């Protein structure tokens, strides 16, 4: 009973932190956020009003939106008031991966995936899979969708509770592998004999 209560409390805390309340506060800071977005803990820079997220956008944990260029510090003796700023715009139905960095004057199209850890600057067209440092478009997301659908690691588990999900994953990745390893050993021993 205590475990269920703690689990429930944890889920409520996550929903408050990452859900509508977080989006409400970000909007109050000036971030333009569309409908049905999921925003985990991310850094929205010192100029959050220069950031725009379309509808159905996911921003993963550790993402950093940087809307200014601090390197102008090098030139402050010659140009004491120099500052460089730029907006960041994310199109509809896009996903920004964990620990990505989006630099000033970046525009990401619709239906895009920014891979975890990417350092992104510039314009990227719709349907881009964006990877790397510096980030580059490496694939069309329609092709990535096909790869996901063919993946042996694909599961349909959104409706399972955590206990059932854990069982399915452990059975698939550990019990199946051990039975496959045993089968391989048996096959190898048969071939030797």
Which SSEs are present, and which pair or pack?
Elements: H1 2-18, H2 20-29, E1 32-33, E2 38-39, E3 42-43, E4 51-53, E5 58-59, E6 63-65, E7 88-90, E8 95-96, E9 101-102, E10 106-108, E11 113-114, E12 119-120, E13 123-124, E14 128-132, E15 135-140, H3 141-150, H4 162-192
Parallel strand pairs: 1-4, 2-5, 3-6, 4-7, 5-8, 6-9, 7-10, 8-11, 9-12, 10-13, 11-14
Antiparallel strand pairs: 14-15
Helix pairs in contact: 1-2
Describe the structure.
- The chain has 193 residues and is α/β, with parallel strands linked by helices.
- The protein has two domains: 149 residues, Hexapeptide repeat proteins (UDP N-Acetylglucosamine Acyltransferase, domain 1, 3 Solenoid), CATH 2.160.10.10; 39 residues.
- The protein has four helices and 15 strands.
- The strands form three sheets. Strands 2-5-8-11-14-15 form a six-stranded mixed β-sheet.
- α1 packs parallel to α2.
- The chain is globular and about 65 Å long.
- The C terminus is likely disordered.
